[in-house]
Specification:
There is one protein chain. Helix content is about 75%, strand content about 5%. It is rod-shaped. The chain has two domains: about 150 residues, Orthogonal Bundle (Helix Hairpins), CATH 1.10.287; about 60 residues, no CATH class. With about 240 residues, the protein is mostly helical. The chain binds zinc ion.
Length: about 240
């Protein structure tokens, strides 16, 4: 398709427009608002997890105390059962021994009540902690669900951008097949060095569209006398001028 019937610089300008479009697609995908939202939820999840760890530690500590007290109560109960057995087997017990056993039974009973009060106290402390932990768990799963939704949105935006990129790349390949390979390589080399600065400009009247400056009349006359397919630079910004 390349030949004198195609305006080579116009083809280059269209390739340039498509490259700008490709940059826009990459920028769009790289700066989706969902990524910031996701980072926010992740920070929230981390805060919730450390809150949960602290709470779990507190709960485990109180539960350990409760188990210790319960074990002690079991021991006391066993001892009390053993004592009353001995007490009722009165033929084996002297009155003095019986008195001692009764006194011990009373003391064990007091001790048991004391520990059972402590257990009740621990259970009272545990109840709100358990509720707080359940609440945290709900907030954690809600945040995880939100991350999933955001990930789905990011995935959708990425595949949409991928489709668009493929389409633009297809158009670009068609144009590149029509373009002067020498022009394309000059353009691509400049574009690689320019890091986003425009390397193509249109001559609109006597003004360069890349730098918006007027091309001095001497240069303007020289450029307009060139072969239409010959590359020319804006004397102000160095952009390749499409005319
Ligand atoms: Zn310029």
């Amino acid at each position: 398709m390349s030949g004198s019937n195609v305006n080579q610089l116009e083809v280059l300008a269209q390739i340039g427009d498509l490259d700008v479009r490709l940059d826009q697609i990459s920028h769009h995908v790289g700066h989706l608002p969902e990524r910031e939202i996701r980072a926010g939820i992740e920070a929230e999840l981390q805060a919730l997890a450390s809150e949960a760890r602290a709470l779990d530690g507190q709960i485990a500590d109180l539960e350990r105390q409760q188990r210790r007290h319960e074990d002690e109560v079991a021991l006391i109960e066993a001892k009390r059962a053993h004592n009353s057995e001995r007490l009722y087997e009165s033929h084996l017990t002297s009155p003095k021994e019986a008195e001692a056993l009764t006194a011990e039974a009373a003391s064990l009973g007091r001790r048991q009540t004391e520990i059972e009060d402590q257990i009740l106290d621990l259970m009272e402390q545990l109840e709100p902690l358990g509720e707080a932990r359940a609440g945290l768990g709900q907030r954690q799963s809600a945040a995880a669900e939100r991350i999933e939704a955001v990930d789905a949105a990011i995935g959708e935006a990425e595949s949409e951008a991928g489709r668009e990129r493929d389409e633009v790349l297809g158009q670009r390949a068609t144009l590149a097949a029509m373009a002067d390979p020498g022009h394309v390589s000059v353009y691509e080399a400049r574009r690689a060095e320019a890091r986003g600065a425009p390397v193509l400009g249109r001559l609109i009247g006597t003004t360069c569209s890349a730098c918006h400056l007027e091309v001095p009349s001497v240069d303007y006359e020289r450029i307009t006398r060139l072969d239409p397919d010959e590359l020319a630079e804006c004397p102000q910004c160095g952009a390749l001028l499409v005319r």
